[in-house]
Design goal:
The chain has 596 residues and is of the alpha+beta class. It contains eleven helices and 29 strands. The radius of gyration is 25 Å and the shape is globular.
């Protein structure tokens, strides 16, 4: 009996759906293990996130890195972030080396449609951009955090677009549209949520439920807790949970639940001192509380509902696990640090699983986690079964284990290019600082002709400075003299004509400065011909953001500086003012160069 062409095509589609499950990855930003009702927090309700755990597997001890971009790069590649060239969170330090491949590269090569909706944080310019790392579609922002949570300007595939509403709601809308648009083919939908990362801004209806709520479960160190920040985190997570529910409901509406792997985790410990199950540490620290994250994985019919995985696991394991679960061949041949967790997911306690050690690092701090113990950065050994809060060091009682783990930590430091231990008390490192990464920013790829150079990736010189200590969503201010300049270390890869625009603000009284953009002897001159001086947005934050080193924001205006011809080469792209008739030149958020 012969089948018609339409029947054959339908059969192929059904077989593809069976053999290639969809993958939805949901990633919280700065949520701690204790920020979920499933994990015992009675001060908020996260029923949709909890439902993923109840319908699938939950990991008892899952570890990420102490800050955002290192965890994200490890999740994407299955390799420790120090191997990848990721050693910071801004000023270019967050970029993955170009010879690394992501699991999105693999899924795209296997025929998946791939999309990311939210925070990327592993490089902004091509070829570090998400569209160069395996994703077909990008909505969101590439930096470590964003300054606007309401009506935010967002990037869509290299072009800034206005949006309307709360940023998490908006980006979830984009993810839902992507799922709906690609329901008939295998898709990878990555939703790295903005929250509960600061600034502490949340929709009024969410804040109203928490603004007067007492703190019933306190932080491990209660004196360090900032009550309104904690309340805002609860409100942010309930909003996030509602958006997770929208995504789960869309999968149900499209009859995709059984054909979709859903993963939920966070990228580091809590960003403030708040309840976290009594663990020591928070974001930026290599103690248990700074690196333990929830991990929930659901795949009905394949992963047993309400199951628990006891062995330790880490962000480095997610890429090999998703490859294996989906039956996707890995692109790239660099050795992995992570393990495929499918035996634990599919066989449970009957899996053949060897014990292992996991390493956590930030700045110069390193800690080592075994199945039962943690050696902290200061060389203190803790029994994590008997003492999960790290209150009583036991290296004197178990000197051999302490020596063994110290030796492993020293060897790992050397392998990863981390300086030897300094004997600090492990209170958390400040990271590598905000020096601009020496790797140049590329300009002029034909396949991605728009290159945005934000202030966070540049260097202010003279008396010019950033608008805040945290570079990620900053802009250049205090530009008052001809000796001031904004400089980016760049490589022009394609000869051609570039249209140059600036996103700026300037008081009307100061209009008229003459600008000069130079690169390797080529100069473009232009003038600030129009004023644009909107007020700072001050009415959206629950907790003043300057307390956390972040900029108050304002809407910036775009002006065209002109067109310039550049030849290929490396050097400094410098913007300065040669004539300043007023008190200031402008405030500058970014330069954009578009290859014609």
């Amino acid at each position: 009996m012969r089948l018609s062409l339409s029947c054959l095509l339908l059969l192929v589609v059904r077989l593809t759906a069976v053999t290639q499950p969809n993958v939805v990855v949901l990633l919280a930003d700065d949520a701690g293990w204790g920020d979920y009702s499933f994990n015992g927090n009675h001060q908020l309700s996260t029923p949709n996130i909890d439902a993923i755990a109840k319908a699938g597997a939950r990991f008892d001890r899952f570890f990420v890195q102490p800050v955002c971009s290192p965890t994200r790069s490890e999740f994407l590649t299955g390799r420790y972030h120090r191997r990848l060239g990721v050693y910071g969170v801004s000023t270019g330090q967050e970029r993955m080396n170009l010879d690394e491949k992501t699991f999105a590269d693999s899924f795209k090569a296997a025929g998946y449609v791939t999309g990311i909706f939210g925070k990327w944080h592993n490089g902004s310019q091509w070829p570090y951009h998400p569209l160069a790392r395996g994703f077909d579609t990008f909505w969101g922002y590439t930096s470590g955090h964003w300054g606007e949570y309401f009506d935010a300007p967002l990037e869509h595939n290299g072009v800034m677009k206005p949006s309307k509403g709360y940023i998490v709601d908006v980006l979830t809308d984009k993810a839902l549209q992507f799922i709906d648009r690609n329901k008939g083919k295998p898709f990878l939908c990555y939703v790295p949520f903005t929250t509960p990362h600061s600034p502490f801004s949340v929709p009024p209806q969410d804040w109203a439920r928490f603004k007067d709520k007492p703190i019933a479960q306190a932080a491990t160190n209660p004196k360090d807790e900032e009550a309104d920040a904690t309340r805002c985190v609860w409100a942010m997570l309930e909003n996030q949970d509602r958006n997770v529910g929208r995504i789960l409901a869309k999968l149900k509406e499209l009859n995709l639940v059984d054909d979709t792997i859903v993963v939920y985790f966070s990228d580091n410990g809590p960003n403030t001192s708040r309840w976290n199950g009594g663990m020591k540490g928070k974001k930026g620290m290599t103690d248990e509380g700074g690196v333990r994250s929830p991990l929930f994985i659901r795949w009905p019919g394949k992963i047993a509902a309400d199951s628990q995985v006891k062995p330790i696991a880490g962000a480095i394991d997610l890429s090999p696990t998703l490859h294996a679960l989906a039956g996707v061949k890995r692109v790239g041949d660099k050795p992995l640090d992570g393990r495929d967790l499918t035996p634990l997911l599919l066989k449970g306690p009957h899996a053949d699983w060897a014990p292992r050690h996991l390493f956590n690092t930030w700045g110069n701090n390193v800690s080592v986690r075994t199945e039962t113990h943690r050696l902290d950065n200061a060389g203190n050994l803790y029994d994590m079964i008997a003492d999960p809060g790290q209150t009583a060091p036991i290296q004197k009682q178990q000197p051999e284990l302490a020596r063994q783990l110290a030796t492993e930590a020293a060897a790992w430091r050397k392998e990863m290019g981390i300086a030897p231990a300094t004997g600090s008390k492990g209170k958390g490192a400040n990271g590598p600082g905000n020096a601009v990464d020496p790797r140049p920013l590329s300009i002029g790829f034909r396949e991605f002709p728009v290159t945005m150079l934000p202030a966070r990736d540049g260097e202010p010189r003279g008396e010019m400075r950033r608008s805040a200590k945290a570079p990620n969503s900053s802009y250049f201010v205090n530009w008052t003299k001809p000796t001031d300049s904004a400089v980016w270390n760049v490589e022009v890869v394609t000869a051609g004509t570039y249209v140059v625009t600036l996103d700026y603000a300037c008081p009307v009284a100061d209009v008229g400065s003459t600008l000069e953009l130079s690169f390797e002897g080529t100069i473009l001159k232009g003038k600030v011909s129009a004023g644009w001086d909107p007020p700072l947005i001050t009415d959206q934050d629950v907790v003043p953001r300057d307390a956390h080193g972040e900029s108050l924001m304002k809407p910036f205006h775009t002006m065209t500086l002109g067109e310039v011809k550049f030849e290929p080469g490396k050097g400094e792209l410098k913007l300065r003012a040669t004539d300043i008739p007023g008190k200031t030149v402008m405030e500058l958020r970014r330069i954009t160069l578009t290859l014609r």
